[in-house]
Design goal:
The chain has 237 residues and is mainly beta. It contains no helices and 22 strands. It folds into 2 domains: 124 residues, Jelly Rolls; 96 residues, Jelly Rolls (Sandwich), CATH 2.60.120. Strands 1-20-17-22-15-13-14 form a 7-stranded mixed beta sheet, with no helix packed on it.
């Protein structure tokens, strides 16, 4: 088994006034040669956007882009004509494929929106751009690890990669074991809230640990906690 620890305070940081963003991996003006990617996981940004502001329309291609609102509402528009509001407990995925342009803005003028934006390299190149979002009830992930993005689960949003995203809300003292979904995959465990121990490694809010060359990981909540698990191929293409 191999592991890597990414402490919250070691992330890249950019404060643009309207946008306060923390980068788990090299992004924009932040570059760390040891944090270019974790297998096929390329970006995990922890963003806070002021009311009424957001990312204006910009293009992407051949990237799987997952957005997970933590607080507030995110407004999505794209070049296919789609216009959606993504709320807390929703998960959105956009397969950029052969090319798409989109904007993501705070849907409210009077409060912040906080969300995680995650990029994963695709399995197949140049597919027709695709969009999907679903709502996942908090009670369905209370003291459970709930799959929210997958290539093989109709209850989750579909991703163009052998990757699985899971969320868990845990009471203090809860313990569980997560089984890696595919041989050769690793798991990037990101603590959204609280304190946990993963494979004997204590982690606090916004800390992360990458774990690979194992088929299971152990998880214990040392306080009420919320975690995101990103199960991705480690063979980087």
């Amino acid at each position: 088994m191999k592991t890597i620890l990414h402490k919250a305070g070691e992330r890249g940081h950019a404060d643009h006034g309207w946008l306060n963003s923390y980068h788990s991996f090299s992004f924009a003006g932040f570059y760390d040669p040891t944090k270019e990617h974790f297998g096929e996981l390329r970006v995990l940004n922890d963003d806070t956007v002021k009311g009424g502001y957001g990312f204006s329309k910009h293009p992407h291609e051949n990237m799987e882009i997952v957005s997970i609102p933590l607080h507030g509402d995110l407004e999505h528009k794209d070049s296919t004509g789609r216009h959606e509001i993504i709320r807390e407990n929703d998960v959105q995925i956009m397969s950029a494929g052969s090319g798409i342009a989109h904007s993501e803005t705070n849907a409210n003028k009077d409060r912040e929106v906080k969300f995680l934006q995650v990029w994963v390299f695709p399995k197949e190149q140049n597919i027709t751009p695709r969009y999907e979002q679903k709502t996942f009830k908090p009670e369905d992930r209370q003291n459970k690890i709930l799959t929210v993005a997958a290539p093989d689960d109709e209850q989750a949003v579909w991703i163009n990669q052998d990757a699985w995203f899971s969320l868990g809300n845990m009471d203090e003292g809860f313990e569980t074991t997560y089984t890696v979904k595919k041989n050769g995959n690793g798991v990037y465990a990101f603590v959204i809230e609280g304190d946990v121990t993963i494979n004997d490694q204590p982690l606090s809010k916004r800390d992360a640990a990458g774990i690979w060359e194992t088929d299971k990981i152990s998880i214990k909540a040392n306080s009420a906690a919320q975690i995101l698990l990103i199960d991705v191929p480690m063979q980087f293409n």
